[in-house]
C-alpha cells in the first residue's frame, strides 16, 4: 500500500531554506506525479457469450500498468484489488461483435443488447451498454466514474447479453483491440 505523504509547515517568520522547501514539496510532488493506478485489458477468452442474460465475469489477459500492486493476473485475472484508500477515477470498456444472427422481424437486422457492469465487492455500481446490429458489426461500450474506495475493495467487470426483439439466435463474441475490454482505477484524492 502506498502512503499518502504529509506536508510540512512553516512558522511565521521562519527563514525558508532550499533544504526544507525541497523536503516540503518533493515527496508530495513525486506522489502526485505517480499515484496508485492500474489498468488491465485484453480478453482471456474468445468464447461466445451466452445470450440468455446470464452474467459472465470477465478475465483479463494483460496488465497495462500497475503502480500499487493492485493486479495479479496469475491468481485473480478478473479483478483490481485496491491497496490505498481514497477517491478513484474508474474507467471500463467492453466490445462485442456479432458473427451470426437470425431474426424473425421483417426488414430488421439481428441485434443484441450487451450490458457491461462494474462491480465493487460483488455489488454492481455502474453500467454501460452496447448494441451491435447485424452480423459482422462491432460496438464498444465505455464508461467512467468516481468512487471512494477502501483498502481491500475489489473491482470486477461483468457482461450480460440478451437477444433483442425480433432476433431468435445470435453468436456474440468479445471484441479485442487496443482498448477493449479494459478496466482501470486511478487514485485522485484522499
CATH class: Mainly Beta
How far the N terminus sits from the C terminus, by CA atoms, comes to 14 Å
Please estimate the helix content.
under 10%
CATH topology: Jelly Rolls
Q: How many β-strand stretches?
A: 11
User: Which regions are unreliable across 5 or more consecutive residues at pLDDT < 50?
Assistant: none
Number of helices: 1
Please outline the major beta sheet.
6 strands, antiparallel
Can I get a quick summary?
The chain is mainly beta. The protein has a single domain, classed as Jelly Rolls (Sandwich).
Task: Describe the fold and architecture.
With 190 residues, the chain is mostly beta strands. The protein contains one helix and eleven strands. The protein has one helix at residues 18-33; strands at residues 37-43, 52-57, 60-66, 80-81, 86-103, 112-120, 123-130, 138-149, 154-163, 167-175, 182-189. Strands 1, 3, 5, 8, 10 and 11 form a six-stranded antiparallel sheet that branches. Strands 2, 4, 6, 7 and 9 form a five-stranded antiparallel sheet that branches. The protein is elongated and about 80 Å long. The mean pLDDT is 85.
Amino acid at each position: 500500500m502506498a502512503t499518502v505523504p504529509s506536508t510540512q509547515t512553516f512558522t511565521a517568520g521562519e527563514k525558508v531554506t532550499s533544504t526544507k522547501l525541497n523536503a516540503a514539496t518533493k515527496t508530495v510532488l513525486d506522489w502526485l506525479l505517480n499515484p496508485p493506478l492500474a489498468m488491465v485489458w485484453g480478453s482471456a477468452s474468445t468464447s461466445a457469450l451466452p445470450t440468455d442474460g446470464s452474467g459472465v465475469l470477465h478475465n483479463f489477459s494483460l496488465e497495462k500498468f500497475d503502480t500499487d500492486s493492485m493486479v495479479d493476473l496469475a491468481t485473480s485475472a478478473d479483478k483490481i484489488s485496491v491497496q490505498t484508500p481514497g477517491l478513484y477515477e474508474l474507467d471500463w470498456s467492453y466490445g462485442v461483435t456479432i458473427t451470426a444472427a437470425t431474426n424473425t422481424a421483417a426488414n430488421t437486422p439481428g441485434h443484441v443488447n450487451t450490458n457491461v457492469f462494474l462491480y465493487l465487492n460483488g455489488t454492481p455500481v455502474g453500467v454501460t451498454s452496447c448494441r451491435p446490429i447485424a452480423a459482422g458489426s462491432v460496438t464498444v461500450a465505455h464508461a467512467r466514474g468516481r468512487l471512494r474506495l477502501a483498502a481491500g475493495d475489489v473491482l470486477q467487470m461483468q457482461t450480460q447479453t440478451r437477444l433483442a426483439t425480433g432476433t431468435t439466435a445470435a453468436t456474440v463474441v468479445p471484441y479485442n483491440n487496443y482498448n477493449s475490454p479494459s478496466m482501470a482505477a486511478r487514485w485522485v484524492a484522499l
